[in-house]
Design brief:
Blueprint lengths: L2 H39 L6 H37 L1
Helix pairs in contact: 1-2
């Protein structure tokens, strides 16, 4: 495999990662809307199950941020490697 082949593959990988990220962001946007509606609907509830569900939704939101951060880091590292070639 030549350096140009590697660079080309890295560019394609970057494109695919960014497409995946865009799809993930779209899905999480829809999920965030559902979460907001659910939390608004039960906002005055003191039920233990509701509180657990709200905590789980918050944890899921935190995971979304981590995934997006990891994808961004992977793209940046791939770009740096490609540029160093």
């Amino acid at each position: 495999m030549t350096v140009d082949d590697i660079k080309s593959d890295l560019n394609r990988a970057r494109t695919l990662m960014m497409q995946g990220k865009a799809g993930f962001e779209e899905a999480t946007g829809t999920g965030a809307q559902g979460t907001a509606l659910a939390l608004h609907t039960v906002q005055d509830s003191a039920d233990d199950d509701i509180e657990k569900a709200a905590a789980a939704l918050k944890a899921a939101d935190d995971e979304v941020d981590r995934v997006l951060s990891r994808v961004n880091a992977a793209v940046e590292l791939a770009n740096a490697y490609r540029d160093a070639l």
